[in-house]
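To assess whether the prediction recovers the assembly geometry, we first specified each molecular entity separately, as shown.
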Amino acid sequence: MPDLDVETLRQDFPILSRTVRDGRPLVYLDSGATSQKPTQVLDAERDFYEQHNAAVHRGAHQLAEEATDAFEGARVTVADFVGARPDEVIFTKSATEAINLVAYAFSNASAGGDLGIPETPATDRFRIGPGDQIVVTQMEHHANLVPWQELARRTGASLRWLDVTDGGELDLGNLDEVVTERTKVLAFAHVSNVVGTINPVRELADKARSVGAITVLDACQSVPHLPVDFDELGVDFMAFSAHKMLGPYGVGVLVGRAELLAAMPPFLGGGSMIETVLMDHSTYAAPPQRFEAGIPNQSQAVGLAAACDYLSQVGMDAVAAHDREITQAVLDGLAARPWIRVLGPLDAEKRTGSVAFVVDGVHPHDVGQVLDDSGVAVRTGHHCAWPLHRALRVPASTRASFGPYTTADEVQAFLDALDRVPSIFGVAV
Amino acid sequence: MDLYQELILDHSKRPQHAGLREPYDAQTHHVNTTCGDEVTLRVHLAGDGPDARVEDVSYDAVGCSISIASASVLAEEVIGHTVAESLHTFDAIRSMLTSKGEDPGDEEIIGDAVAFAGVSKYPARVKCALLPWTAYTDALARAGVDIADASATKSGV
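The predicted structure of the complete assembly is given in tokenized form:
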């Protein structure tokens, strides 16, 4: 496996050479919120606009053909990148929308009436109501929690969840009691966006399948850091977002097993997603078009494909190995500072992408402000995972998160900046 | 760092008038949704209208040093004053906080709150400093104060 040459790779990210706060070099440790973008991604978007721009799937001219080829080519690239088939890849505006798309398939199927699609036996798997259960985990980003709370509210199904241990891992001790024959959907994160825990996807997917429940995996924090293969994971749906994996804003991806997508009613209605439109009703196109209403996010999809190509060229095994090294260095550095408490697993093998921690007696906002004063960008707060923080009995945390461009020197700069915290706030070291 | 003035750190470590007390006329709970800072705040007034006296402000604050110190300074600056005076103080603090570093604040009007002048250079932290104040004005409104009318009242200033 070729090593990741981080210094060469950084040349592709102009923003990483800028300074912040009175000339201090930027140390960007907030890739969990959004990654920086290489020039290859920006160039791909610009090239689309400069050379091929036209509305896809419409128009009888050459540019329309080229734009359609670029957009559908992006679908193939993204599918290859995550081990799916192109017709299993749906472009959404975000991972949040991708998860909502699945949640609304459930409530739209449950609302009754003619769904405008050729129903299959699998359509019944999306019908949910009182007595049925939706299962999530305490570890979820709000994007994989709130849509399910709302689905429960709309349909009368009940919401249950798997707890998190004090060590920041999923508590599977009562898996058999929580996931039962009444469970219609099991939604969970591949990797926690706060504590970085890598969850046992296969075990959860097998359990869900044994009771006939549909699995929805939030892969936002895994796809940027680990080789991810949709087929191997064994889940039914998987959502991730481009902007966390070196790609642009405004495009997320839903990957769904073809036979389930075919059985699902649409989410958003409008142009592009129809088969025939009459005055009083319509019928709908086959997936993936059924789920891509309106003009699609073409240039962003092309940018995402460029990000996939970029990561493939670096090699996801190399990205993952680099991430492990950085995570280990951060964990070692924090362990040497007894006034810091790391949240989540202390074993670098069990996590990826980010390390969240607390300094007892100092609010994370204040920790983050001191780091910022040294040019170190981290995120503070609850990171859209408020229930997880409650479960870990902390109001908020400071999170350092990494990308393929993160260097060992940056880890040292982060640790040095942290060492300013105790003296400013009078913490005993 | 000019943000963390001694006064702010002192107030955050030893918040004045902290804790929730009886009696009170109204209570509010405000949350900074971006970071989860929370404050529960009670006001106890004597009298009616702009000249009502703020007998007590009590609070329970969970948050960063800026929001806790701000709650502490708020209690110090408004207890014993009229509602109109306290809103005048808030106006002066708010213009300082939202001045992006242009307005250093007038110690004659806002007292210890001048220590928060540095906060105005950090837009993300302005919300932290304002949180207790928005909870306070909301509590006044719930206690029956007409905020617009009381803010416009110059009496007692």
